[in-house]
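Next comes one such specimen:
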Amino acid sequence: MRPLDDIRVLSVTVFLAGPFLGMTLARFGAEVIKVEVPGAGDPIRSVGPFHGPKGIDVERRTEDDLSIRFLKRSEGVKSVTLNLKDPEGRRMFLDMAKRSDVVIENLSPGSMKRMGLGYEDVAAANPGIVYCSIAGYGQTGPYKDLPAHDHQIQAMSGIMDMNGPADGPPTRIGVFVGDLVTPLYAAYSILGALRHKEKTGTGQYLDASMIDTLATLMFMEPMEYVLKEGQSVRAGNDSRNNDPTGLYHLADGDIIATVSLSLRLEALLGALDASELLEETRFSTPKARQVNIAALRAEIQARLCAYNCDQGLALLREAGVPAARVRGISEAMADEHFRRRGTLKPMYRQDSNEPVEGGVVSGFPVEFSGGALPKLEGGVKLGHHNREVFEQLLGLDADAVAALAVRGVV
């Protein structure tokens, strides 16, 4: 199934957020053409570890070595080189945009406009273009020109204040959540804009902001009331609602249980032969339990530590209490569940039919009854598709492309 196989995307993207957006659209069958700087490319290409003919190493050892990070972020994407600061390169980009449906970019705000390739410039050449920019703080507002990687966005958004133990420091989420979730918002915004174009014939500009994305996630929780009531916004592995939900240490590992409802607490204590605790004044009402939550958790912990994880989980599940063992990354990565659903797949390079040793790439976490999404080719060397794309879109032959390369245009 290739629902976007009639959509062409020009991608002027670097690092993570923009490339992840491009790869997401490619997963649905779009032709995604990544436009990179001649001789250098996406800066992530220079960040190790690298894979090549001599295996994997923290340093690049051959010209055929490719960054593992680049391989993870470029499945299904074509690579061309084009100097967008050169007048001829700018003209070629606009000619390509005339034959495209979408432009995506995540350079510093204003960079594309300064090169004469902002939305207004591209829309003048193709009024139907859907043009999406991703930036840390967006294209407007007082922070738009500040440097913005995921670390700074997590800090400025306030989301770090929600993470970590209540008596500990603010803690960054362990994945680049702003860089990864913003492209998902952008992807379905692009689909909405394309649907609008089908109805009206007009394109539009989409301004996606990483910090705004994190704010939308944070305030799905009633944080304003948590603050008003003077509660700690940082709860670590426990519940912000002061119920027994949280992490418990068992004889051979940790589990996390959700005990947010009174009925679940009754079931949990019943399974632990501790129902009498609910008759004590300090635990007899929801309000009393909130006040004495540390003591209640300690009572539960004291009883659970007598079990190993298998025993404890069986006990809780039999009682109808949602619980799971806390697994390590390597254990989760080896889980056959992800292989069967295509969530994790072996990593391949486009120039090789052999998998990269030990490498995995993310698949798509939704299964379609109408058929599988396309199998994507792996990442490629810089400018791998120059001849194909420039011939297809601009009618240039091999000699013309070679001449442009000598001039530093491609």
About this structure: Residues 8-217+336-406 form a domain with the Rossmann fold fold (CATH 3.40.50.10540). The first strand starts at residue 8 and ends at 12. The longest helix spans residues 177-200.
